[in-house]
Amino acid sequence: MKFVEKEKFVWEVPKEGDMLVPARVYADETIANHLKAELTGEWSALRQLVNVASLPGIQKAAIAMSDVHPGYGFPIGGVAAFDVDDGVITMAGIGFDVNCGVRTIRTPLKKEDVEKKKEELAQKLFEHIPAGLGSTGKLKLDENQIDEVLIKGSEYVIEQGYGLPEDLEYTEEKGRIKGADPSNVSHKAKKRQYKQVGTLGSGNHYLEVQYVEEVFDEKAAKVYGLEEGQVVVSLHCGSRALGHQVGTDYLQVLEEASKKYGIPVKERELVSAPFQSPEGQKYFSAVNAAINCAFANRQVLNHLARESFNDVFGLAHEEMPLLYDIAHNTCKLEEHEGKKLIVHRKGSTRAFGPGRKEIPKAYRSIGQPVLIGGTMGTHSYILHGTEFGMKEAFGSACHGAGRRMSRAKAKREWWGESIQKKLLSQGIVVKGHSRAGLAEEAPGAYKDVDRVVNIMHDVGLARKVVKLKPMVCIKG
């Protein structure tokens, strides 16, 4: 396989064989060499990207960001846009954790304010935020109520008292995407979610108390309401069991559709259907329902975080406004350069540039906030979208550091208790519901987030605004 550097930080596999477009990766030499080495193994992100480049209706290139690593059929960190008339919708380009995303909340507190009560705050959040495998939340719903969540998203839970109406303005799609049809979501999927709205889950999901360690762009930071030393709260999670079940349910539907419409399946999860086909539209409506479920989930967690800060610091909920909520596991109808496309982002963050109507008015002059989660021992970032990123990558950027080793290997290399102690020595209080889970998420299991973000910044897909340092981390 030819894999060449076209220009600095831009690598490509040229169009050949079944490929309809090139496969492009934004990477430095270290990341590129790691991708080449993977080609000899069972899982290869580069091979997966080439497979994506062979799907009907794909536009421009199959793209991977600097946090790229192998996923199920479609590389994590991947972006693929398809023509709405001739293209496909593919399960692998969305995944099982539909609308996994990051939400960041501003506070009026400074780092030194939190340092005085860091242990107390960590314990309060640990007790108040439902987390861990199979965790259940305060909100108990029946099937009719779940259907309302799937249609109304954040709106529904705010009506139940979980949040502020103004939160909607600063949530992607205002917390409610159109085109959701609960009748296309199975009873099993809904039943799994009766008690899980407002839960963090496990794996790489987290809630972190962070502070602004460095400001790179004073103008953008001011527009976003951020300054050096300021404390924020970030949470990372998705649609929980419901989203996973939607993915599981539609694997078979799309497998049959792939055969019916003659779409080659090069990896099991890369099953697809023409977007305009009955199967494609049915799956799309189920994905939209799961997207709304995730918005509601993060909205409830937002409310619980505010309650915890109120208990410890006496802050009113209105003193903790939402900065932004943005997803990185979706497929969405978008217009790019005058053309309607169905854009898949699998572990890639939407990063719209200035002027787009989808961005809150307050941010429109700068571009959309791009929330990048790091590891519990390093940094996270907030970037802003750019006009260049709109043209080059359909308004997309990386979503995090990106794994460099499997969870199984991480558990062989680290102990959860030793990670807690090491991070505590660095001033980071970590509380987890599973020591094995902490080992899986060891900072060393991930790429260098600074390197990953710097590539995005230097290429110009998104520009750095602030760097965030963790103080408290709650894990499932």
Main sheet overview: 8 strands, mixed
Broad CATH class: Alpha Beta
Number of domains: 1
- Give the N-to-C terminal Cα separation: 40 Å
* Structure classification: alpha+beta
Poorly predicted spans = none
Strand percentage, roughly? 15-25%
CATH superfamily membership, which one?
A: tRNA-splicing ligase RtcB
Radius of gyration: 21 Å
Percentage of residues in helical conformation: 25-40%
CATH topology: tRNA-splicing ligase RtcB
Task: Give the strand tally.
Answer: 19
Mean pLDDT: 95
CATH architecture: Alpha-Beta Complex
Task: Choose one word for the global shape.
Answer: globular
Explain what the structure shows.
- By secondary structure, the protein is of the alpha+beta class.
- It has one domain (4-475): tRNA-splicing ligase RtcB, CATH 3.90.1860.10.
- It has 15 helices and 19 strands.
- The chain has helices spanning 29-38, 45-52, 111-115, 118-128, 143-152, 154-159, 187-192, 218-224, 240-260, 278-313, 387-393, 407-413, 416-425, 435-440, 449-459; strands at residues 4-7, 10-13, 23-26, 62-69, 76-83, 88-90, 101-110, 206-215, 230-237, 272-274, 322-327, 329-336, 339-346, 349-350, 369-372, 380-385, 396-397, 429-432, 462-475.
- The strands form four sheets. Strands 7, 8, 9, 11, 15, 16, 18 and 19 form an eight-stranded mixed β-sheet that branches. Strands 1-2-3-4-5-13-12 form a seven-stranded mixed β-sheet. Strands 6-10 form a two-stranded antiparallel ribbon.
- A hairpin with a 2-residue loop joins β1 (4-7) and β2.
- The radius of gyration is 21 Å and the shape is globular.
- The two termini are 40 Å apart.
